[in-house]
Specification:
With 270 residues, this protein is an alpha+beta fold. It has a domain at 108-269: Mannose-Binding Protein A, Chain A (Roll). 25% of the residues lie in helices and 14% in strands. The strands form two sheets. Strands 3, 4, 5, 6, 7, 8, 9 and 10 form an eight-stranded mixed beta sheet that branches. Strands 1-2 form a two-stranded antiparallel ribbon. The termini are far apart.
């Protein structure tokens, strides 16, 4: 009879295992009520209990570390196509981007604004191109086709193996080597807004057409140091310009303009 009562109590306090053993419920208290005033009324804190507690704590910490390591590994993997540009990617998700996150072509435009020869140096000219692109919501990084003693496109640009195209899709050149061979497939005649460029003041050239500051040879190197408006930081002196729309070498070197004149910039995606 006593054995039966004990078995019934065990089943009530725990979970029955099909193998015949009884597992104590996780919520079952180990506290025993005693009439002895000297008996402990709390949880057993003997050596066996400490070891068990330590084991559980260590196991819990290990599992947490594994989860953190797994999460870190996942977040460090570049994911082409997720719309987030990673260091290993040229582009991700925008028009003109391949499934491998490399550029299928690079954009070229003439700025819709015109400027004097004081461009803030080459860095200032680059920034004018970048600002124009961003205002027109064009993706990518842009640099100005312009040269001085501070540098030239042949030294600064990505020398592309994919085509250069205008914003209407017209191809300018099939690659960097084609861009600098002396003749373009098409003249550069569209702005970042897909409009025709405006004519700035170019009194010294005496032509009623648009020009772009350049001082750059067809090959992408500096033309002449003395024709860069004081490294594109002054409105004194002269600067070489290219005639917008031409496809021969005149697109980049055509007219010596006064640095007080106004001309556009050629902008190339990198």
């Amino acid at each position: 009879m006593r054995a039966s009562v004990l078995l019934t109590g065990a089943l009530a306090a725990g979970c029955f295992n099909p193998t015949g053993s009884v597992f104590a419920s996780e919520s079952t208290s180990t506290t025993e009520v005693s009439s002895d005033p000297g008996a402990s009324s709390g949880t057993d804190t003997g050596p066996g209990s400490e070891a068990s507690s330590s084991t559980v704590a260590e196991g819990s910490t290990s599992a947490t570390s594994d989860e953190v390591s797994s999460s870190s590994a996942s977040s460090s993997v570049d994911s082409c196509g997720d719309g987030q540009l990673q260091e290993s990617e040229e582009c991700d998700g925008e028009e003109g981007c391949t499934a491998e996150c490399t550029k299928a072509f690079r954009r070229v435009f003439v700025t819709s604004e015109v400027f004097t020869g004081n461009l803030g140096g080459i860095a200032g000219a680059d920034q004018k191109c970048q600002t124009a692109a961003e205002n027109a919501r064009l993706p990518g990084e842009y640099m100005a086709w312009i040269s001085s003693s501070e540098g030239a496109p042949a030294e600064r640009f990505v020398q592309s193996v994919v085509p250069y195209r205008q914003l209407d899709g017209v191809q300018i050149a099939a690659s960097w080597s084609e861009l600098i061979d002396g003749n373009l497939e098409s003249g550069i005649y569209l702005t970042e807004l897909k409009t025709f460029p405006q004519k700035g003041t170019a009194k010294s050239c005496m032509l009623d057409i648009a020009f772009a500051w350049s001082n750059t040879q067809e090959s992408g190197v500096l033309w002449q140091t003395n024709y860069a408006c004081g490294n594109w930081s002054e409105e004194a002196g002269s600067g070489y310009t290219g005639r917008v729309g031409l496809s021969d070498g005149g697109w980049t070197v055509d007219c010596i303009a006064d640095c007080l004149d106004e001309a556009a910039l050629y902008c190339f995606e990198q």
